Amino acid sequence: MHETRTSTDATSRDFLDPADPDTANQAALIAWLRLQSALCLSPVLARDCLQATGGDPVAALARSGKVPRQGDGVIRGWIRDLGRRGIRALPFTASLYPPALRALPDPPPLLLARGEIADLQRPSIAIVGARAATGYGRGVAWELAAALGKAGFVVVSGLARGVDAAAHRGALASSGHTIAVLGCGPDRVYPPEHRELADDVAQAGVLVSELSPGRPPAAPHFPLRNRLISGLVQAVVVVEARRRSGSLITARHALDQGREVLVVPGPIDTVHSAGSNALLRDGARPVLDVSDVLQAVSSPFGSAPTGGIVPDHEAKAKPRGRDEAKVYGLLCQDVAHRDALARTLGWPPGRLSVALTDLEIDGWVEGDRDGRLRAVPAARRALRERT
Description:
The protein is α/β, with parallel strands linked by helices.
């Protein structure tokens, strides 16, 4: 009984550190790793049992009727190895466990993370797509990730070949933060050629897995991994996906979780974009540049972070011309058609046309597909120029 009580007390901490020899800490780690070993592929059952037992991993495991895959001797070996690798544990009850994941119907009972744990709670955007991506797809993923990193977002992906790797590298190139969600144990890297990339991610973000140490990359693990990618973020951007693509699973998870789904359009005559273009046909938002992503996440999660990259004087800038400033001010209040603007201003068509042309050329105003005009926020305009 004493071990159960100290385990529960220990897991109310921010996280559990395998390198900490404290008795209560070690007992808690053993209890949570036993639960993870038995239930990491059954997260709904794990959640139900934890909720029924007040978050006690020992009682939750007993209630589940499941048996851990490994004995305590092996689990103690895991703890030593996790400590050497700098991997920390985030139980479901820990204060730093991501609230966005805790709110899911199938949250992982335990996360194992290497890197900056705080990044798991920062505003984030996922970029996912084909492993066998084209040069165009990899380039777009890199550019979007770099721009989002500069804008203060954490870029989330799955460390896979192709689009995922390009997204991580783009974020790193912009000195941004990035999260790699693994489809294997935290002590493994898949694909193996991404070992150096994984180390770079851990230095500028975090590697995270819900799977026990030693778990290999396997087919059942990746749909689980994909729900965490979408669960951590405000929006998912799909770049190139075939009709049968894991990225489409991520998009479906995102829709189920109430996240925004955006898609980079691709050629209609290539298999690389067949699945992603189908998402567009079904109503996903198109991404033509980073401003489309920033606009999508400005609601309902709040304004997009700027990460300090847009100086205050730029964020407050306005068009220089008197007519242009007046038109821009009206459009900042609400979107409007050209005719409605002319009526409000009482200007002849030629005067309004000159002002709007200058505003559109300089990037202060943009048009919707239905002909409505809207102001481009000064901070977003400055960000677009910088990216």
